[in-house]
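Figure 2 data, in text form.
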Amino acid sequence: MRSYPGRLLRFVRYRILGLPVDPATLHSEMLTPAIRELAIREAARVANRFFADFFGDKYGDKCEGRAGELDGIVADFFRVFEERPIPSNAGGSGFENLFWLYVTGRLLQPELIVESGVWRGQTSWVLRQACPLAEFHAFDVDLSNRKYSDTSIQYHEQDWSGHDFGNLDGRRALAFFDDHVSHMRRIEEARARGFGTLIFDDNLPVYHIFQETDTIVPTVDMLFDDALSDLFSEGEEIEWIHANLSYRVRVDLPAWRAARSRVRSYANFPLVDKLANNFATKARYGGPTKIALVTLL
């Protein structure tokens, strides 16, 4: 038997009373346990294939034998996601980014985490859930937008490049960049400080940059796009318009090639957006964001 009270209430609220729709109040979710479990198993399958391809069978030395824990880690994420402090994180990371940050953090278990670009604090929260014992430094040039903070995280209202980490073991450190700064610059800075494993958000290909505010040039994707070397000569510019504003960036091919040469391996995390919709459509905030995993030489 179908139940219609919810539909009737929405009709009265939005069609008769003319009240505005608040997306944060709308919730759709799969309730059948067997189907929820199916989504979790599929997410684990996608993650297992990605990490096996990236780090090698059994995920190599990086994961220190934790490959066998992956199914449980993925199941834990779906539980943790329900407890996120910012249910509707407009302008920030949604289901997909949170999934990969959590699973990667649990597998790598870094002793040091650096986050550059805090925004409201949702990604700080999920990385702390994944790695509760890690030393954690979060950087943003403006921390006033935070909705979540944690006394166990050291916050710095500055660019991360101005902080001295002292002697660190880069093999046990993870840096996450979601700060709308050139990925080339961040790769060079991370390598100079000894970091070996990086995650980049907003890793768009060159033909998508006109769609975004605060576009990053070059992204990791652009560094590895061999076609750009054929399209441009040294000193030429990429030009685009976004929201009626004009932008241009000079192509510095030697610098791009130098940054690329620092990279050991690079891959975009596979999309799990459809899984988010199987789990809870409320989890989706617009199109999927490109998020990439990078290891340095």
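Caption note: Residues 5-296 form a domain with the Rossmann fold fold (CATH 3.40.50.150).
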